[in-house]
């Protein structure tokens, strides 16, 4: 049975960091720097599709991080009808530099985390642990979290329960007293519920009436969860 929430784990991309915005701005800025002409918004949309496809192959264990990045770059250059180059990974690294420079927090994040007081916080992400630490450092948030658990550290990706349980163990709290906060309704919130945590969906689009649309409401939502548990 679920107890009072004592610790909170967070997703990173599109929950704390505006990943979609950074990806769009990063690729547009990179293509512009390379002298690419034409509809850069269309190119960014295609890049987003390719990125999701190749990153999902990485999550499924079908390639490693460098392999998915190399394939992503090669596919994108083919789509743009750019001449092929010996090492597409270098092209990807150029993009990643621009992407990292575009990283930013959503405006509700700092106040939302502050409202949680000294509740222990951690990260569970389907991205790579070391890369996630770099991202969190860049936006000035790394020291706020006691642990960062990436897909490589857990040996499983969300929605698998193991990655949530690895996060709970790293934070030092059992799933029954730990909340998990993420922007993916099924892959984050429902999957965390399934793993025995309290899943909280961050509804970043604000569409519909479900979910938390502002992290500044998170403390109240977690309190409500306590109230409903004990009522
Ligand atoms: Mg996310």
From TrEMBL:
A GO molecular function assigned to this protein is: hydrolase activity
Q: What is any Pfam family matched here?
A: Hydrolase
> What stretch or stretches form a coiled coil here?
none
Which GO BP terms, alphabetically?
small molecule metabolic process
Cofactors demanded by this protein: Mg(2+)
UniProt name for this protein: Putative hydrolase of the HAD superfamily
Record key words, sorted:
Hydrolase, Magnesium
**Family matches, as InterPro entries:** HAD-like_hydrolase, HAD-like_sf, HAD-SF_hydro_IA, HAD_sf
Q: Which domain of life is it from?
A: Bacteria
């Amino acid at each position: 049975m679920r107890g009072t929430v004592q610790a909170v784990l967070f997703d990173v991309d599109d929950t704390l960091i505006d990943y979609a915005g950074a990806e769009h701005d990063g690729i547009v800025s990179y293509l512009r720097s390379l002298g690419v002409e034409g509809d850069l918004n269309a190119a960014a949309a295609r890049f987003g599709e390719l990125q999701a496809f190749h990153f999902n192959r990485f999550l499924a264990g079908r390639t490693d991080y460098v392999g998915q990045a190399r394939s992503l770059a090669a596919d994108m250059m083919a789509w743009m009808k750019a001449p092929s180059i010996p090492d597409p990974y270098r092209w990807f690294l150029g993009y990643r530099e621009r992407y990292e420079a575009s990283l930013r927090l959503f405006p509700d994040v700092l106040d939302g985390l502050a409202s949680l007081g000294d509740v222990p916080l951690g990260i569970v992400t389907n991205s790579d642990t070391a890369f996630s630490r770099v991202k969190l450092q860049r936006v000035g948030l790394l020291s706020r979290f006691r642990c960062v658990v990436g897909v490589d550290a857990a040996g499983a990706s969300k929605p698998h329960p193991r990655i949530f349980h690895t996060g709970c163990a790293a934070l030092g709290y059992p799933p029954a007293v730990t909340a998990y906060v993420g922007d993916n309704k099924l892959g984050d919130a429902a999957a965390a519920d399934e793993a025995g945590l309290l899943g909280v969906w961050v509804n970043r689009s604000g569409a519909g009436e479900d979910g938390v649309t502002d992290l500044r409401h998170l403390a109240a939502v977690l309190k409500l969860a306590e109230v409903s548990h004990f009522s």
